[in-house]
Structure formats: C-alpha cells, structure tokens
Amino acid sequence: MKEEDKATEGDIITFEKDGQQVEAVVTSSRLQNSVVCDMTIMEDFEERNIDVEKTVVAHKNYTIKMRGDGAGSGEE
C-alpha cells in the first residue's frame, strides 16, 4: 500500500468487525502495518454490543471514509 493511501490520525475509516460494518476515528498511525482506532464515534456504538472501544486494523482491511484535518499527523 502506498504511503499516501494509508490513514493518519483523525481520519474516519470503515471496516468489518465481528460481521458488522463499523466506523472509527484513527487515533494512532505509527504502527508499520496497521492503525489504532476508536469506534465510539458511532452513534449506535452501545447498541452494537462491541466488547472494546478501540481496536487495531491492518491497512489492507479498512477504507478511508473521510480525511481528518491533518492535526497531529506530524513527525516527532
């Protein structure tokens, strides 16, 4: 996957988890092959009975729904 096609902090991604299509905001993109994301942005998160609030998703397993504002994605 090309670097520009990878999600960064603040991006909204969609992926499948436990047979459900879910939406999440990327909270960390520092891992080489995946991103850490927070699924609590979904209005119906509580009703979905998902056991965890955050998860790790491989780059090949998500699509970017919306790019964030770019804040927080700088190198340190």
Helices, strands, pairings?
Elements lengths: L11 E6 L2 E9 L5 E5 L15 E5 L3 E5 L10
Antiparallel strand pairs: 1-2, 1-5, 2-3, 3-4
What is the CATH topology? Answer: SH3 type barrels
Number of helices: 0
The structural class is: mainly beta
- Biggest sheet: strands, sense, closure? 5 strands, antiparallel
CATH top-level class: Mainly Beta
How many beta-strand elements? 5
Pfam families: DUF2187
InterPro entries: DUF2187
Protein name: YkvS family protein
Description:
The structure is a single chain. This protein is mainly β and 76 residues long. The two termini are 23 Å apart. It contains no helices and 5 strands. Strands 4-3-2-1-5 form a 5-stranded antiparallel beta sheet, with no helix packed on it. Strand 2 (20-28) and strand 3 form a beta hairpin. The protein has a single domain (3-66), classed as SH3 type barrels.
Name its key features.
76 residues, SH3 type barrels, YkvS family protein, five-stranded antiparallel sheet, 5 strands, 0% helix, mainly beta, DUF2187, disordered C terminus
Concise account of the structure shown:
The protein is an all-beta fold and 76 residues long. Helices cover 0% and strands 39% of the residues. The radius of gyration is 12 Å and the shape is globular.
